[in-house]
Amino acid sequence: MKPVEDVLIVVDVQPDFMPGGALAVARGDEVVPVINRIAAGFSHVVLTQDWHPRSHVSFAANHAGRQPFETMTLPYGEQVLWPVHCVQDTEGAALHRDLHVPHARMVVRKGHHEHVDSYSAFLEADRTTPTGLTGYLRDTGVRRVWLAGLATDYCVAWSALDARAAGFETIVIEDACRAIDLDGSLARAWRDMLGAGVRRVTSNDIETRETTT
Ligand code: VGL
Ligand code: ZN
Fold first, then answer.
1. Is the pLDDT of residue 213 over 50?
2. What are the DSSP E strand ranges found in 77-182?
3. Confidence band for 18, pLDDT divided at 50, 70 and 90
4. pTM (2 d.p.)
5. CATH for 6-53+83-212?
6. Which residue has a Cα nearest atom 1 of ligand 1?
7. Residues within 5 Å of ion ligand 2 by Cβ?
């Protein structure tokens, strides 16, 4: 069992990101059993939940004449416009019903400010508003951040980059993630993560090592 200094952050495992969901990630459902299995090896687990008001700036439907997956320039930079997803208190925004991580200690809800998106679990898209997660992890003695969930190239990648920037050792568990892959975003995300010193492992790597040490 990994100690409290190793946190597993499970990103956005919510019905709206599953096949058939409002912002479906291909094979997104496949991460659920993998995450259930690896989470059992962590004493410290945090979940994130994408959690938008219906009037959210990231929704194409809130911009006249705009379509989902176009980009738009907002005061804080380029924003992909998404289908309406993860609206606060809707079924699509709940935690996935088959996610079984009873010992998860904390849920970070992000993207709740109407005018700012937040892919990252640490810092909103204006790159200045903290979610509070950095402080929580420092307070609880975390040194190493392991990441799993959806989507590899958006919320997982942005969270991994911010975890590194905050000084945590950072590891992405590749087969516990699935990507949206919009215009090369997945290759770009891996290039950026590896360039920043994020490590890439598979769930098999952790489980094998667990049994041999
Ligand atoms: C996500 C796009 C919009 C994610 C969330 O969880 O990766 N992507 N909102
Ligand atoms: Zn979102």
1. no
2. 77-80, 106-110, 144-150, 169-178
3. very high
4. 0.96
5. 3.40.50.850
6. 155
7. 50, 111
Average pLDDT over residues 200-204: 97
CA distance 57 to 73: 11
The DSSP element (H or E) to which 49 belongs, if any, is strand 42-50
Decide: residue 201, CB within 10 A, 0-12 exposed, 13-18 middle, 19+ buried: middle
Ligand closest to Cα of 56 equals 2
The alpha carbon of 147 and the centre of ligand 1 are apart by a number of angstroms equal to: 15
pLDDT tens by residue, 93-108 = 999 999 999 999 999 9
Given the CA of residue 11, which atom of ligand 1 is nearest to it?
6
What is the CB neighbour count within 10 angstroms for residue 102? 8
Question: Where are the domains positioned within the chain?
Answer: 6-53+83-212
Is residue 33 within 8 Å of residue 199, measured between CB atoms?
Answer: no
Please tell me if the CB atom of residue 16 comes closer than 6 angstroms to any atom of ligand 1: no
Tell me the pLDDT tens digit for each residue of 21-74: 999 999 999 999 999 999 999 999 999 999 999 999 999 999 999 999 999 999
Residue 154 neighbours by CB under 8 Å, 6+ apart: 119, 180, 185, 189
Residue 147 near ligand 1, beta carbon < 6 Å:
no
